[in-house]
Amino acid sequence: MGQLNLANADLIKYQNILSALYNILEETNNSPQANIILDVQNALNKKNYNDIRKVLNSVDMWGGAGAVWEVYIDNEIQEKKFKQEIIKLIDLMEETNLLGSGIKRIKKILKED
């Protein structure tokens, strides 16, 4: 697997989505989850296929309580923006063949909210 071969446009899309998620998490005092997003950004910057797949599909991102997608955001506007960015991330992961099993159902859950 080795090097991740993403088009520059895809790398930019990932960085834009991850930056938006990071900002929302920091603004809503969810620093532990913001740090997970930083880990994803760092792996993406290294362009190592195994690392990016591992961190993007990690339990820290998609597991239960404490995972990035499960954070509680009190502000409704920020919560809506957050969910939209998570859905964009899942869509991009699917487009770039980095989507792990079980994550599509999270998109469905978020869209139902």
Give an account of the 3D structure.
The protein is mainly alpha-helical and 113 residues long. The chain has one domain (8-112). It is built from 6 helices and no strands. α1 (8-27) runs antiparallel to α2, α2 runs antiparallel to α3 and α5 (76-95) runs antiparallel to α6.
Compact summary:
The protein has 113 residues and is mainly alpha-helical.
The run of helices and strands is HHHHHH
Structural class: mainly alpha
The average pLDDT value, as a whole number, equals: 90
Shape: globular
The tally of helices reads: 6
Q: How many discrete structural domains?
A: 1
Roughly how much helix do the residues carry, as a percent range? 55-70%
Q: What is the CA-based Rg, rounded?
A: 13 Å
Most strands sheet: none
Strand content: under 5%
List keywords for this structure.
mainly alpha, 113 residues, 6 helices, single chain
Secondary structure elements and pairings:
Elements: H1 8-27, H2 31-46, H3 49-56, H4 59-62, H5 76-95, H6 103-112
Helix pairs in contact: 1-2, 1-5, 2-3, 5-6
